[in-house]
Amino acid sequence: TALQPQPLLKRQNRGAAAAHRTQCPSVSVPRTSPARRDYLVVAVLCYANLINFMDWSIVPGILLDIQKYFWLGDGDTGLLQTVFTLCYMLAAPIFGFLGDRYNRKLILAAGILFWSGATLGSSFLSEVYYRIFILSRGLVGIGTASYSTIAPTIIADLFEEGKRTIVLSIFYIFIPVGSGLGYVLAAGMAEITGDWHWAFRVTPCMGGLALVLLILLVPHRTQRRTAAHRALSISGTRRVAEEKPGVHGTAKTTWCQDVISLAKNWSFVWSSLGVTAIAFVTGALGTWVPVFLYRAQIVQGIVPPCLQKSCSSSNSLIFGGITMGTGILGVIAGAEVARRLRKINNKADPLICATSMFISALCLFAALMVAQTNILATFIFVAFGELFLSVNWAVVTDILLYVVTPRRQSTAIALQILVSHLLGDAGSPYLIGIIANAIQARNVPSFQWSFWSMQYSLVICVFVGVFGGGFFLLTSFYVEEDRQEAER
């Protein structure tokens, strides 16, 4: 429903009563409180987000089994997540363009159907089809991109700024929860069935249910609900225009114009580089931490080398539990701290992200240093490192949503996905594996050097985390100005 200003009074009567009548023209505005249906839509989107990231983490959860099944080195093993992420990030701008202009519900449904089918198909491949297995992971990444790009903009349409942060926090809680469940699901199915292929046959069934719920409950169109869109100018020189379905704002622009405008938005630029650092660290840790812990346990003599068909999955199960717990706590804590600090500091969001990145880098460095002597302390430091990384999930998205105008938000999210994954987790698992291979090649093959090679290569994540904190500090210098510009 379009908001249309009432005709302004042509003559202003004298006196207090006339002045009172002309202060603000009477208009009919849509409801401001979300309906029950809106919360059902969010529930469906959160469920699909859960499955989305469960599928993302299946491969790291059974990485030892896959590495042994296909006879892969560390470099080729890291390539699995790299191909997935590359396809994911390259498809994101396409879906961002489509999401700003066409029916988002149909795009979401097609994406869920696509990645569910690709995941199910990959579960029937034998060891001679390694390249096809890599290709299937790339196809899953393409389907996943449609959802991650468009779903947050639907939530932004349904809720105003005060409630939007809370709802986005709930939505992003399912990133670490889904990732953790992915580890647990993969390791559990491999242990129960004795065949890691079964890990790829659960999420497609869950995706089918998500597809049905999406079709039944998510509306075809949503309209942005913000105070700025309801405000009417007293002077009559500015009017609230009717928004066309699927397009935010009053004028259409080309994709290149949107990109140029976003490139001039320094808050968006620096925060996107900060998100890139988060993605780099998260991608590397998610892929290699279970393997790193396994090699540390071998060096300490806690577990024997894996010579069986199915390797031990205890590290993946524990790491999955840590990811879930710290993710929930971190997202909730980040949203609550941001809500409180915004009242006293307009730069609170980027400062929270910067602080959490610095602390996370310190915890990860401590985890790497104590791994050879104390596994329990390693798990504790890894948990704190992931906790402070998770603080940023909802906060960085909220930064994007209030420094970018509504009609460019899908494009902005898509560009942020492209940049953060291109320079982040698209290459970090492969880079860590390549460095580990290079270190092992220069030394006598042994379990000790297998552990040290992974330890030395993972130190890169500590430096990247520090750089990420610096990028968020730079964001704080521009966030107030860019926010005001977006509101105008």
From TrEMBL:
Pfam families: MFS_1 (PF07690). The chain crosses the membrane at residues 39-59, 79-99, 106-126, 138-159, 166-186, 198-218, 268-289, 317-338, 350-370, 376-401, 413-436, 456-479. Belongs to the major facilitator superfamily. Spinster (TC 2.A.1.49) family. Residues 41-483 form the Major facilitator superfamily (MFS) profile domain. Keywords: Membrane, Transmembrane, Transmembrane helix, Transport. This is Protein spinster 3. It is found in: Membrane. GO terms for molecular function: transmembrane transporter activity. It is a multi-pass membrane protein. Its main location: membrane. GO terms for cellular component: membrane.
